[in-house]
Write the structure tokens for this entry.
Amino acid sequence: MTFETQAGSFLISDYRTLHRGTQNPHNSSRPVIVLVYGRLWWSDWGNYPPAKRRDMEGNLIPSVDPALSELDEIQAAVLRLKLEAQMMATESVEEGARAILQQLLANAWANNSNNNSNNHNNHNNNNSKTDAGKLGTASSELGTASSDPDTGLGPLKPVSVPDECLSLNSSNNNSNNNSNNNSSNNINNLSLCMGGFLSTGRLTSSMCQCLQDPNLVILKIDNTSETIISEVERETYLQATFLVARFLEQNAVHSTYVLPPRMLETIFEECPSYSLQDTRPIHFMFHTTYCGSTLMSRALAEMSFLPVREPAIYLYAVHQYLSIPESKAKLRQAVLDGMAWWLGRRYHDHEVPLVKAHDAWLMPEIIGHLSRRRDSRMLFVYNDLMTHCLQLAIHQGDRYDVEDQWLSQARADDVNVRVELQKLELARLSLMEMRAVQWTIRMVHYTEAVLQHPAEVLGIYAEEFLDEPSRVLMQVSRFLGRNVLQNEVDQVVKGGLFERYSKADPGVSHEFNEEKRAERFIDAMEKYDQEVKECRAFGRRFVESVASVSHQFRELLTLV
């Protein structure tokens, strides 16, 4: 949008809008305000060259100078929280954004004339905070940055936040609660926790204290995108957390917050010091797609197990976008060592935590974790290749359950598997062929885990679980260190869970018996015969190529 202020005329746009062509800031004489994943930037000349990376929606992502000072990024993040609260309390979103941005830009423009001298003084007085490659950190000043070497983007300047936008204290929050509606109250409460402490400099301790709140859940962490903090009751969390995030988002008031990578590293190095020092083991479950793992999780949840998703820091996007190898290693080690702290606030003394991992990329990390914690266990629930292909053909188009789509990022510790992956022209593979590769990668991880930790890893073939659920649940419970009685297991199996099971909605009736399951299988095989043949044939060739150079994977041939 465009509006006039005492500082001049401005064009406001999100980077997605720019790339979609609905606004064209090129060759514009007006300054341009650009929202890049929650950070607010402005350019004097209105030139916005294209970037090389794309987000998951296919939009080009502008590159931002990695030497940005932490304080400037914090200020932009707090501004975004304040903007959300303002817009939630205003009938017109544009009016709400206009009001807060007018105040912001007027302040920034007024200080622009003194920018050079202020930057010079700040550099002399704050060498510990800034250097030649970083931006100034004063809350009301504008710094400069060098061009981006990849995109040629000129010096972008972060729009600093006035002190008024940083004063999110308890008294201000109470006044907001009296004047705003319920939605903005919730946003402001969350903003207070995640943003109010930033002006005091007590970042690490305050963040750790916020994350210990039993009603706050981190759904996503990404240093280039938005960290989603959701406020959700424990009961809702227990029902949905090991499913996809959309179930939580439907029942949660959430705000967004941006954390730069250096800050993430600091937080996850320091937060374990706040740990409950819980010594109980934490177990893990990995799986292929549509194999009954969610049904098994629900059954175990009725036997004093607590299935939860992996902490969001594990998700691949974090490691994908962190460019410094040392930071990756520190983050991984810090979070693995602090796993009990992340989950300790959500389970009780009688519950056994079971991380039902959403991302198969985590499997090699957990294999290393098993080496350090011999009392931890790993389950792997899987289908054979034909059933895997059939299930994916049946559910094709469900984007929430198509995992590991970006196969160029797939990881296998075995060097021979990586070599075989590199031989594939991934861009030319059909969707079913890509899913066959997906299955192979997961099975390779499982095989590696069994070879390294045979006593700590248990594989569950999906057909065996569906045919004999009582026997398999008893086996799994004892493997995870809980001695349950047979009548407890029988009660769970006969209690209606299997009859009413539905992955999409636990309350939807769904017949689950052997006869009808066999009928559906035959009907589906006839309907999707061509897709299954394509997927299976390609998968077998790929597994054979892997097994031919790495003999430890020959057993996979029995499943294709």
Remarks:
- DSSP finds 25 helices and 15 strands in the chain.
- The CA atoms of residues 70 and 263 lie 7 Å apart.
